[in-house]
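Sample intake sheet
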Amino acid sequence: MFEAGVVEFKETIYSLLITHYLKSNMSKITSIATAVPEYRQSQMQIYDVVRAMHADTEEEARVLRFMYKSSGIETRYAAVPDFNPGNGRCEIVSNAAGTSATTSLEERLKIYDKAALNLAIDVIGKCLPEGMEPSGITHLITVSCTGMQAPGLDLSIVKALSLKPDIYRTSVNFMGCYAAIHGLKHAHYIAEKEADAKVLVVCVELCTLHFQKDKSIDNITSTIIFGDGAAAVLVENSASVRKGWELHGFYSEINFEGIDDMAWKISADGFLMTLTSKVPEILEKKCRSIMDNALQYYGIEGDEVDSWCVHPGGKKYWKP
């Protein structure tokens, strides 16, 4: 009788544990915020500054102007004042005429250290829900591929906001556009397992700091497309009282075909971006199969999905 009672007790506990897991094995995004640095400029204001460096002839200036106007971008923000015509201030380019060299990588990263922290604090303040103090953050994940140091941005945030000294922290660095998804994935894995987790993911990118004077097509494309900004999300367990968007899972595949078409290298003069016009074409060839594989992985039909969001790598995009 005693042994049978023990078996029954164990089975009851097992049932309770399974039930609890099923109720709390998801996460949800309960808050989202964005922030931009102080310097705002229109796309064509940027063109007015950089044409002296990226166009030596009237024909080159005409082509460059067409590229800027057809980018689909109207306004961008920067952490440095260099691309606001007429302000008389330059931090990464010695003068607007471009007759002298850009600053070194060391100088650029000094700007990054200060500007990235300020932007991170700004976006965190906007992201935290009403009534939640920074001390309530249990996990911090920072994401960036435009600057790095050790101690890193994560520790700078912990110190600036007096976060808990036993906070879990990690950084996702130099992974490009995928980095934010990778950070969100980590947040999901943490929050789905810890009922009281308050996981904050902070993404900060200061692409403008890596402006290059050299007239390569990669440098020109980077200057036309990328700007500066930050985003943050708070991820909690699905048992949280706050409403949000539930995260059920992630699926990803590696495609080596475009490994030389999208790259980010470090040089003495800053980070060098490679972004060719082939990227949308490569994505188009693989996108459908990845979508199908993701559907199969989770056992759902395509008509059960309300919408897809595809990051195409440029203005040219593919419609499934």
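Comment: The longest helix spans residues 2-24. The chain has a mean pLDDT of 84.
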